[in-house]
Amino acid sequence: MKRLGLLIMTLLLAGCTPWIEQEKEVPPSLFDYEGSYVGSPMSTKNILALLPDYGLKWKNMRLETDKEPYGIHLYYEKAEPAIAREAARTYSLYLLRLITNADIVTLHSDTTQYRYTREQWENWLGLPLEKYTTEEQLEQAMQMKLEEDPDREGLAESS
């Protein structure tokens, strides 16, 4: 009987202890990777994982780190050219903004490639990419620029 009473008391006390809410893990955001370097493939993959996938099927990646300008090559299975171009624009903008020493991003899809440089983006947006300190600022600048140049004629991919 004493054991039963002790068990009941233990359960009652356990039920009366305040609930300690555990901290919820905050998922990473794009700007958590700000200051990454081309030589860090995990940072590049983590950035890409946070961007829209556009339905592209990933093949691999090659990083050019031997000499400047440093570059990132992204390889995907064959994709609709318009979709691959839009993915290349989005990926290049964010990779060039977040990866400090990246100068060129090239997306390869089957026999097509889309290449964008830091200089192209800065000329098109009108400011150095580092001036955009949040994802919201970068998206807002893109929206404003797209209103002026909806076809992005001033941002033609280079070869």
The protein's oligomeric status is single chain
User: How much is the radius of gyration in Å?
Assistant: 24 Å
Strand content: 15-25%
- Spans of at least 5 consecutive residues whose pLDDT stays below 50 are none
Q: How many separate domains? A: 1
* Strand line-up in the sheet with most strands: 1-2-3-4
Number of strands: 4
Measured as a percent range, the helix fraction is 40-55%
Note the total helix count.
Answer: 5
End-to-end separation in angstroms reads: 85 Å
Which class of secondary structure composition applies to the elements?
A: alpha+beta
Could you characterize what this model shows?
The longest helix has 18 residues, at 81-98. Helices cover 41% and strands 18% of the residues. The protein is built from 5 helices and 4 strands. The chain has 159 residues and is an alpha+beta fold. β1 and β2 form a beta hairpin. It is globular. It has helices at residues 2-16, 41-50, 81-98, 118-125, 135-148; strands spanning 58-64, 70-76, 102-109, 112-117. A 4-stranded mixed β-sheet has the order 1-2-3-4. It has one domain (30-155). InterPro entries: DUF4825. It comes from Chryseomicrobium palamuruense. Residues 30-116 form the DUF4825 domain. This is DUF4825 domain-containing protein.
Which structural traits does this protein have?
single chain; 159 residues; alpha+beta; 4-stranded mixed β-sheet; 5 helices; 18% strand; globular; DUF4825 domain-containing protein; DUF4825
